[in-house]
Structures are given as C-alpha cells and as structure tokens.
Amino acid sequence: MRILLSNDDGYFAPGLAALAEAIAKFAEIVVVAPERDRSGASNSLTLDRPLIVRHSHNGFIYVNGTPTDCVHLAVTGLFDELPDMVISGINHGANMGDDTIYSGTVAAATEGFLLGIPSIAVSLASKSSGNYAPAARIACELGERLRDHPMTGPVFLNVNVPDVPYGRLEGMGVTRLGR
C-alpha cells in the first residue's frame, strides 16, 4: 500500500513526523507538504507564482504552496503511481464545525478525495500538548481498516483524536459536522 502524507503545518511539523513514523510500519509512504505553516489556507491553490518542489534532508518533499497544491501536484504529476490513500495531519488542534472550512489539514484530504482517492484528515484535539502518539495510532488503525475493507467509492474522513493516552480512548464515533 502506498500512502501520500501531507499537512498544513509544514514539512518540519512534529505531527507529520509522528504520522510518517507510524504509517511507515504498514505502508510505503511519500510525504509532500508545504515548506512553511499554511494553517487556515483552506482549499486555495497557488496561481500567482511558480511552485517549487524541493527535497528535505529527512526524505520529505516540500512545496512553496498550499496543502491543496501539495496533494494536487503529488497526485497529478510528481509520481508515476497514484497513492492508494491520502492522510493529512497530524494537525495540532481540532478541526471541527465551521473550522473545517478554513483548515489546510482538511483541505489536503479533501483534495485527495476530489481526485478519487480515499482520504483522512487527522487532528489532535489539543492546543497545548504535543503527544501525537495516540492520534498516529488511530490514523494507522483507520488506514489499515480502509486497506482491508475498501469502501465502494472514495471516502473522506475528518478525525479528531482527544488528547488523552491511547488506553483512555473510549472507542470511535461517527457524527455529522456541527457548527
């Protein structure tokens, strides 16, 4: 399985590093993320300047554009093979309700979905902690579920993981987007 990882916090973000480390245990990963923090970029595309693709020392690819640019470039031309899935995150802070409209994390996953690829946006529901391990584990579980039990069409999940140890999580729930 080949998974494209992206985010809106930049290629250097600790949430992306935690996600990459966890997902690499069960899938081939490719990381294409913005060169800087693009939180709040929503689904915007960069149309006013050329996009430049660079390689980081850690193997990640970064782009001087938005999260949507990153996923779009990766899927439509950077690679010979399409990814089986797009996972965006791990965002530092929840993406719920009206916030999803502005979120670059959600936008990266939305772009994957719009291009016909199952996509997941993952956020750590915390403004203070940097404990990404439970959210990374949930991302792995969901990625493996979608791999083992594919849905009939493209799927998009926006996942918010509470900032508690994994053992204190009390299951998953599916809900509608609120305000």
Q: What is the rounded Rg?
A: 15 Å
Q: Report the span from N to C terminus.
A: 35 Å
Overall mean pLDDT: 94
Count every beta strand, where a strand is a DSSP E run of 2 or more residues: 7
How is the largest sheet built, in terms of strand order? 3-4-2-1-5-6-7
Helical fraction: 25-40%
Strand content: 15-25%
Q: Enumerate the spans where pLDDT stays under 50 for 5 or more consecutive residues.
A: none
What composes the largest sheet?
7 strands, mixed
Shape designation: globular
Number of helices: 5
Encode the helix/strand succession as letters: EHEEEHEHHEHE
Structural class: alpha/beta
Salient structural properties:
179 residues; alpha/beta; seven-stranded mixed beta sheet; 5 helices; 7 strands
Structure report:
The protein is of the alpha/beta class and 179 residues long. The protein is built from five helices and seven strands, in the order βαβββαβααβαβ. It has helices spanning 14-23, 67-78, 99-102, 104-114, 133-148; strands at residues 2-6, 28-34, 53-55, 61-63, 85-92, 119-125, 156-162. Strands 3-4-2-1-5-6-7 form a seven-stranded mixed β-sheet, with helices on both faces. Strand 3 and strand 4 form a beta hairpin. Helix 1 (14-23) packs across helix 5 (133-148) and helix 2 runs parallel beside helix 4. The protein starts with a strand and ends in a 17-residue tail after the last strand. The model has no long low-confidence stretch (mean pLDDT 94).
